[in-house]
Write a structure and sequence with these properties.
The chain has 72 residues and is mainly β. It has one helix and three strands; from the N terminus they run αβββ.
């Protein structure tokens, strides 16, 4: 009687874990405060758009501003 070799299992093995929001904040450092504001103004053929984002976390602070003016 001939014994066949077993085929190797090459499928990836994944382990999943669930994190609640509080645990995720502890892992990522969390966000202490964040705000965002936007403006869109269109008068006749002139269009003005602007965005402001700011956040503060345990790692520091960050801010960004984006503005666009166009003629339609």
């Amino acid at each position: 009687m001939r014994k066949e070799p077993r085929a190797m299992n090459v499928a990836p093995h994944l382990v999943a874990a669930e994190l609640n929001d509080a645990d995720l904040d502890n892992v990522s450092g969390g966000v202490a405060a964040a705000t965002t504001a936007g403006l869109h103004l269109q008068v006749a053929h002139l269009e003005v758009c602007a965005d402001l984002d700011a956040l503060v976390s345990a790692e520091g602070a960050a801010a960004s501003v984006n503005a666009h003016v166009g003629v339609n």
